[in-house]
Design goal:
This protein has about 170 residues and is α+β, with helices and mostly antiparallel strands. Strands 1, 2, 5 and 8 form a four-stranded mixed beta sheet that branches. A four-stranded antiparallel beta sheet has the order 4-3-6-7, with helices on one face.
Length: about 170
């Protein structure tokens, strides 16, 4: 009988989880939902916010898309399969200030990996070993960190979308 160490077991579970998310998400392949280009800028008191995780969660359920802001507060959404954009419809928008910008908007696969790590960390409840550590408090009020409490709601339309997200 083979002995499996904890690290190998963790990596196996993580790989299975990521594969399952991509399969169930409906965001993969040519048969997935139509995606629409979404970009924008996050500001507070007129100043751009860098290193902000931006996630668009469809209000009717379905595939979420996310991205990270750069030094100018600009972001571009990427679906979990690395394709740019988000599904059309109303979205609740979640903002979290991350300790480190995990991916550049110019590398869709790195952005997808960062989004998957953040989701895995959320599913672990932020416990030890969570791949992405989020800051508590900071420049973004806690109410923006949860889809059920965020006041931000945007309607993604077919085509190109550009949103200015302003934090009071």
């Amino acid at each position: 009988m083979a002995v499996v160490n904890r690290k190998t077991l963790y990596m196996l579970r993580r790989t299975c989880f990521l594969a399952l998310v991509l399969i169930v998400s409906g965001c993969g392949g040519d048969s997935g939902p139509a995606l629409n280009a979404v970009s924008g800028k996050v500001t507070k008191a007129g100043k751009p916010l860098a290193n902000v995780s931006v996630t668009f969660n469809p209000a009717a359920g379905g595939v979420a898309s996310g991205g990270r802001t750069d030094d100018q507060g600009r972001f571009a959404l990427v679906c979990q399969n690395g394709k740019g954009g988000a599904v059309a419809g109303k979205h609740k928008v979640v903002l979290k200030l991350a300790e480190v910008a995990a991916a550049s908007n110019s590398d869709p696969m790195a952005a997808r990996d960062a989004m998957m790590k953040a989701r895995e960390g959320q599913m672990n409840g932020g416990k030890k070993g969570a791949p992405v550590a989020e800051k508590k408090g900071g420049e973004i009020p806690e109410t923006y960190a949860n889809p059920s409490t965020t006041p931000l709601e945007y309607d993604v339309v077919v085509g190109n979308n550009d949103f200015d997200i302003v934090i009071p």
